Amino acid sequence: MTNNEPMVWAEGVMKSFGSLQVLKGIDLVVDRGQVVCLIGPSGSGKSTFLRCINNLETIDGGWLSVDGELVGYNREGDCLIELREKEAAARRAHIGMVFQHFNLFAHKTALKNVMEGPVAVRRMKKDAARDLAMDLLDRVGLKDKADVFPNRLSGGQQQRVAIARALAMEPKLILFDEPTSALDPELVGEVLQVMRDLAKGGMTMVVVTHEMAFAREVADTVVFMDGGVVVEQGSPKEVLSAPKMARTQDFLQSVG
Amino acid sequence: MTTVNKEAPRHPSPGAGKRSERESLKIVRRTSYGRLAADTALALFVFGLIWMSATNPNFQWDVVFKYLTSAIILKGLWTTIELTVISMVLGTIIGVFLALMMLSEDRWLRSFVAAYKWLFRGTPLLVQLIFWFNISALYPEIDVGLPGGETLFTLSGNAITPFMAALLGLALHESAYMAEIIRGGILAVGQGQSEAATAIGMRRLQVYWRITLPQALRVIVPATGNQVILMLKTTSLVSVIALPELLYSAQTIYARTFEVIPLLIVASIWYLTICSLLSVGQYFLEHKLGRGFRSTN
Ligand SMILES: Nc1ncnc2c1ncn2[C@@H]1O[C@H](COP(=O)(O)OP(=O)(O)OP(=O)(O)O)[C@@H](O)[C@H]1O
Ligand SMILES: [Mg+2]
């Protein structure tokens, strides 16, 4: 299923909560194998946009597609028809998501957390799913924690399990929403290392982050959002070292 | 402490050479004489009570033991258990639907549940039981069919047996409380859990079934356990509609023999026995469900 459309293609994406318009026309293209870092002040709509990409929020206007498929809608002539719940779920299955607060399933061990997607959604056999999950836990360095419940894991370990859980769906794209913001400083490194390895392996990633050093090192594109629009985007050098827009300069100054 | 012993003390103090002697000093705790006195008084009191009830001829322990396992009492006990189990199961099933309706975005569904709870929690259960028992007088026949359309089938009022009236009353009343418990359990599961499940591509029902509900049970089960124990005792209200459950069976005997106290003791012994068994079961169930949530597991 290779096509030459970009992995994520957003044009004029809009989203409101009641009378509050949060996204006011987002334009963004993410190519295959690219790492895009989203930065911007609090409340600028970064999380909302990320959640729109895998249809946790439905968009109110504009165009948004992932891997050539519209998100949340089917096109019929001039109309966009809202997807059936089943189709929406099927499309989400190919998009991984990693949350700020990990959101590991609290009633399942690390291993069962990773197995959940393959078993419940991909309908894999238990044994095959267990092997896959073990491999993935090994990859994030947590093979020995397989039978531990999340409440006995450190934040960094939980986040690595969460990444393994996303990988278990063999996603074509992974979305990260401030994956290290809830971590103690000494645990940030281990999670960033896993993400760095993923990027090297060619995974397409959209990362909302405040880790400027990470963005500088790993990102192909850095996107600065403010007030529900993309203010500036370009290579890390362009955006982080020589920002053109005053708002970007102000923001970078404020985060140091 | 043994490993510390091998190292030199970091803060040598006078007499440092005599460590072992200082370590082996004996600790003497003080006795609380007030507590001792209270315990003694309590022991005397409890002993007195047991002595009195054991020797008081009015308790008629021989009568108690005679009826404890009599056929009529055991049959009543079985009816009590049946009533408890069936009305709890029905009440829980209806409660699940009510809870989902309460959590729905549809205003009408929510209003319906509000009215339902208002009705069934706002009137005494005893009144509801008598009402259902007399429903045959109110509606001798119930036609079940489409509004304004043909009758599909007819329930004759006599078809509502006392047992069904009792079940109906207990289950509907219970469902109003179970709905609240189930809703609370579901709300206690963080939104991040269902979001993460949705994000890996689970469908809404799967999310409920595999992620939300198992975690909600941790809150729901203990509360439901209490409801079961409460229900066991509440079934005794059904004696007013002459349904021979445990209490009514005891009553029929003492109406004849006038051995009121011993027969009430017989009933109480059975209620206590079942309650104790239920409590043990509840303990083990809670323990199993608590995995992943306690600080030690
Ligand atoms: N479900 C919702 N209902 C109503 N308002 C919402 C909802 N989700 C987000 N918002 C609002 O949308 C705005 C953008 O929120 P969003 O979480 O996307 O910002 P953000 O850029 O991720 O900020 P942060 O850096 O603090 O995470 C905020 O004003 C927020 O209050
Ligand atoms: Mg955010």
Write the layout of secondary structure elements.
The complex is a heterodimer of chains A (256) and B (297).
Chain A: E1 8-17, E2 20-30, E3 35-39, H1 46-53, E4 61-66, E5 69-70, E6 73-76, E7 79-82, H2 85-92, E8 95-98, H3 110-120, H4 126-139, H5 155-167, E9 173-177, H6 185-200, E10 205-208, H7 212-218, E11 221-226, E12 229-234, H8 236-241, H9 246-255
Parallel strand pairs in A: 3-10, 3-11, 8-9, 9-10
Antiparallel strand pairs in A: 1-2, 1-4, 4-5, 6-7, 11-12
Helix pairs in contact in A: 3-4, 3-5, 4-5, 5-6
Chain B: H1 2-6, H2 19-23, H3 33-55, H4 61-68, H5 71-103, H6 107-122, H7 125-138, E1 141-145, E2 151-156, H8 162-188, H9 191-199, H10 204-234, H11 246-257, H12 260-289
Antiparallel strand pairs in B: 1-2
Bound molecules: adenosine-5'-triphosphate and magnesium ion.
What can be said about this structure in brief?
Chain A is an alpha/beta fold. Chain A is 36% helix and 26% strand. In chain B, α9 packs antiparallel against α10 (204-234).
Description:
The complex is a heterodimer of chains A (256) and B (297). Chain A has 256 residues and is α/β, with parallel strands linked by helices. Chain A has helices spanning 46-53, 85-92, 110-120, 126-139, 155-167, 185-200, 212-218, 236-241, 246-255; strands at 8-17, 20-30, 35-39, 61-66, 69-70, 73-76, 79-82, 95-98, 173-177, 205-208, 221-226, 229-234. Chain A has a 6-stranded mixed beta sheet with strand order 8-9-10-3-11-12, sandwiched between helices. Chain A has a 4-stranded antiparallel beta sheet with strand order 2-1-4-5, covered by helices on one side. In chain A, strands 6-7 form a two-stranded antiparallel ribbon. The radius of gyration of chain A is 18 Å and the shape is globular. The mean pLDDT of chain A is 94. With 297 residues, chain B is mainly alpha-helical. In chain B, 72% of the residues lie in helices and 4% in strands. In chain B, helix 5 packs antiparallel against helix 6 (107-122), helix 5 crosses helix 8 and helix 9 (191-199) runs antiparallel to helix 10 (204-234). The two termini of chain B are 28 Å apart. In chain B, strand 1 and strand 2 (151-156) form a beta hairpin. The interface between A and B is medium-sized, with 33 and 24 residues. Adenosine-5'-triphosphate binds at residues 17, 20, 22, 40, 42-48 of chain A.
